[in-house]
From TrEMBL, chain A:
<protein>
    <recommendedName>
        <fullName>Rad50/SbcC-type AAA domain-containing protein</fullName>
    </recommendedName>
</protein>
<feature type="coiled-coil region">
    <location>
        <begin position="160"/>
        <end position="230"/>
    </location>
</feature>
<keyword id="KW-0175">Coiled coil</keyword>
UniProtKB/TrEMBL annotation, chain B:
<protein>
    <submittedName>
        <fullName>Uncharacterized protein</fullName>
    </submittedName>
</protein>
Length: 482, 332
């Protein structure tokens, strides 16, 4: 991919930057003139969400970049969220950001591989601040991240989509449980505070009692219904007997009709049930009046709540949430384990027997020898996934980063069959000696002669066929003067 | 029932509970009770057509004697009015103050729950009454029918406040039947509710019949408590669980006349050397299988069927025993 020109328009002003296919040096004698802003404009014009610099608000500017990419020679016009691509044949394609960002990148880089697309910027661009310490994981610029595992998966077509989805969900859950844990700790604090009685919610107690009362009432009402049924059944039995008009003989030979009055024990049954019915009804009515009292009290408390402060009602609500601190913390530790397991599996799938890994390591080793930091790189190809950067001095890290980037570029180019530009913002960090910079430039001249190189610096380098873009005063001032 | 400790509701509460105590003391002779009646705070109507009138006066604090004397005097005046009709059997002044005459050295006479006739009163107290009767004058009071009762009844803790009342109920139940143990709390609550209803009813002719009050005992006893069964051979938990599951069936069978009649007839015919609960237990053990047809389905385990049938038989028979005891002992 090669940038040919970049036109930046801001209101009445504009500036066109022309580039050569080879090396380009954005140069100014002193700092803070807009070199970094210009570099970021290149990324911005390619639809990357890069943060504005102090000098200029990107979204207020219109960029028009001319470049050769896998779509051919195209012009990309960006106006805030709107992207218009003009093809050589005069056709135009429109994209809306950020939704279409990946779609657009898939077209210009010529690959659908999301693992690759997500990490490609980190391959060819080195930011002036963090860029030279970003080796294999971290933030490239703004919110754009770089992750070597993902890149390697992209390069070797080893998708872990399912696993990463699982991992994401585990992480989300973990997050929630951690919040829950915080809540339980907050509750503990509330309980430990002396005024916990205030939140020992009276209404909750009353609510519970009310529920108990209501369920008692329901069961008593069912009992009442049952008793009424038995009363009716006993009555119909009595009627049945009476209808039969039976009489029995008494001990003196007298005739005794069988009816309610003469059936032994019938009155007892009737009165027993009537007494029972009365007792149940009276119990129901007394429970109901108790329940009403609670209901009224609960209503009253509702009114009261309106006058409490936000923090009081928050505390009260929090104290109502039932969080079992122990089971939450068990859940957290089991999710942590699951997270580690998934991570390990993903790592294994990424690294195991992977040619890309070997190849990146080989390239890094090659440049390590040349730039004289070989002793810091372990011979195992796993080294490219290292997270031990603390032991490295600034100078060494700078060189290692440089070597890694070149190794990435080589691999990505193999994959997408297209050269990538190399964009370096201020490669001469504070601790970098001139010799080191020269060695790096030499490598670029020698091994990356097909790549377009864009460097921003206050130094002049000995670069082959360099096109110097000088920013005399601030970039923004020059825009306005045109 | 509102039992906030305001002087008036406290007074109501005392009046109701005093009525319960007086009722139990006269249970054999009374027919019905009225609280807050036409004439008096508590009116007990006797079978003999004569009445017991009781004037109830309470103080909220046990050591507050400021108004006891004026309470007594007002009480005597009302009792004098009651006595005018000459339909009375007894006149009672009932209070919760341990010092109803405000005479320090008379207090030992009223210690605890006391019932003193005029003749048994300390001399100093007699003199106070005499003077009052003479001064007013209270011509209708027959001092030989006058009694002074003190029922300890204090504090906002109901357990403590009703202690003496509950003891009265307990004693009454103990004398009634040995299957009614442990029912005092529940029974007292039911009666208090009944008496409270009565005293708040505007129709002064409405009385509480002794019969109705006694029925509450039978109904209470008929409730299914596992500890009230004769099922000592079975696991308490299992019995409880079975009662829970078969409550509907058990209650229905215990209340259906045809079935009750069948069981009682069989029991009557059942010959045994035992008596009382022992005979019941023997009958149940022997006849249990005859009643297994209460289950329409045969799928229920034998042991469960056993327990359910035994509970039903026991309840039917003990209910009738209790009813007979009540009829005899409270003269229903």
């Amino acid at each position: 991919m090669i940038f040919h020109s970049l036109k930046i328009t801001e209101g009445m002003f504009e500036r066109v930057i022309d580039l050569t296919e080879k090396s380009n040096l954005i140069y100014s004698k002193k700092n803070s003139t807009g070199k970094t802003t210009l570099i970021r404009f290149f990324l911005y014009s390619l639809a990357y969400p890069v943060p504005s610099t102090k000098n200029i608000r990107f979204e207020k500017c219109i960029t028009e970049v001319n470049l050769t990419c896998s779509m051919g020679k195209i012009t990309v016009l960006r106006n805030d969220e709107y992207l218009e691509v003009s093809l050589e044949n005069g056709c135009k394609e429109n994209f809306v950001l950020p939704t279409d960002q990946n779609l657009f990148h898939a077209k210009i880089y010529g690959t659908q591989n999301n693992d690759l697309l997500n990490n490609i910027l980190g391959v060819f661009y080195v930011d002036q601040e963090k860029g030279w310490t970003l080796l294999n994981r971290g933030i490239i610029i703004g919110k754009i991240r770089f992750n070597i595992e993902q890149l390697v998966r992209g390069l070797s077509d080893r998708s872990c989509d399912d696993l990463t989805k699982d991992l994401r969900s585990v992480k989300q859950q973990l997050n929630k449980y951690k919040q829950m844990f915080n809540i339980s700790q907050y509750q503990q604090e509330l309980n430990e505070a002396e005024n916990n009685i205030v939140f020992d919610t009276k209404d909750e107690e009353e609510q519970k009692l009310l529920e108990i009362l209501n369920s008692e009432i329901t069961s008593l009402e069912a009992e009442l219904k049952r008793v009424n049924t038995v009363i009716a059944e006993n009555n119909s039995f009595k009627n049945f007997i009476e209808r039969m008009k039976i009489a029995v003989k008494g001990s003196n030979g007298e005739s005794i009709p069988v009816n309610r009055d003469t059936i032994i024990g019938f009155d007892f049954s009737v009165e027993f049930l009537l007494a029972k019915r009365k007792m149940i009804s009276s119990k129901i009515s007394s429970l109901k009046s108790k329940a009403e009292k609670y209901e009224r009290s609960l209503e009253g408390q509702l009114q009261l709540f309106k006058t409490e402060t936000l923090i009081e009602s928050f505390d009260r609500n929090i104290s109502k949430i039932e969080v079992d601190q122990l089971s939450v913390s068990n859940m957290i530790s089991s999710l942590e384990k699951e997270k580690n397991r998934l991570n390990k599996q993903i790592t294994f799938l990424t690294k195991y027997n992977n040619d890309v890994v070997t190849s990146i390591h080989k390239t890094v080793m090659k440049y390590a020898k040349e730039l004289d930091f070989e002793q810091f790189i372990t011979p195992s190809s796993d080294y490219i996934f290292t997270d031990d950067l603390k032991s490295l001095s600034g100078t060494i890290l700078h060189k290692i980063v440089f070597a890694f980037k070149l190794a990435y570029i080589i691999e990505v180019q193999k994959k997408i069959n297209m050269t990538l530009p190399i964009i370096l913002d201020s490669p001469s960090g504070r601790e970098i000696t001139k010799e080191n910079v020269k060695a790096m430039i030499d490598i670029l001249n020698r091994d990356f002669s097909d790549n377009q190189i864009i460097i921003a610096s206050i130094f002049q380098y000995d670069i082959d066929e360099v096109n110097v873009i000088e920013i005399k005063d601030r970039l923004i001032n020059e825009l306005r003067q045109q | 029932m509102s039992r906030n400790a305001t002087p008036s509701s406290f007074g109501w509460d005392f009046q109701i509970n005093a009525a319960i105590v007086l009722m139990l003391e006269n249970i054999k002779t009374i027919k019905s009770v009225r609280v807050e009646g036409k004439k008096e705070d508590i009116e007990l109507f006797l079978e003999s057509k004569k009445n017991i009138y009781a004037q109830a006066k309470s103080v909220m604090r046990i050591d507050d004697y400021r108004n006891v004397r004026s309470n007594l005097k007002a009480g005597l005046e009302t009792l004098n009015d009651d006595a005018a009709c000459d339909d009375y059997h007894k006149l009672i002044y009932v209070t919760n103050s341990p010092n109803p005459f405000n005479v320090e050295n008379s207090m030992s006479a009223f210690y605890g729950h006391s019932r003193l006739s005029y003749n048994d009163l300390p001399q100093s107290c007699k003199e106070i009454i005499d003077k009052e009767i003479e001064n007013k004058p209270l011509i209708h009071i027959d001092k030989s029918e006058l009694e002074i009762h003190v029922i300890p009844f204090f504090t906002d803790d109901f357990q403590q406040r009703y202690r003496v009342i509950k003891d009265s109920v307990d004693k009454f139940l103990f004398e009634l039947n040995n299957n009614t143990r442990g029912m005092a709390d529940e029974l007292l609550e039911i009666w208090q509710h009944e008496f409270f209803q009565n005293c708040t009813q505007g129709d002064l002719d409405l009385v509480i019949k002794k019969k109705d009050l006694m029925w509450s005992i039978i109904v209470l006893q008929s409730q299914l408590h596992p500890e009230h069964t004769f099922l000592g051979d079975y696991d308490d938990g299992a019995v409880e669980e079975i009662i829970r599951s078969y409550r509907y069936l058990i209650n229905n069978r215990c209340e259906k006349f045809e079935f009750i009649s069948q069981v009682l007839f069989d029991f009557q015919e059942f010959r045994s050397d035992e008596k009382g609960n022992k005979k019941v237990a023997e009958f149940i053990a022997t006849k249990c299988d005859d009643y297994k047809d209460v289950f329409e389905l045969n799928e229920i385990r034998d042991e469960v069927q056993d327990i359910v049938v035994k509970i039903i038989l026991q309840k039917i028979i003990t209910n009738r025993f209790l009813a007979n005891d009540i009829v005899k002992k409270v003269n229903l």
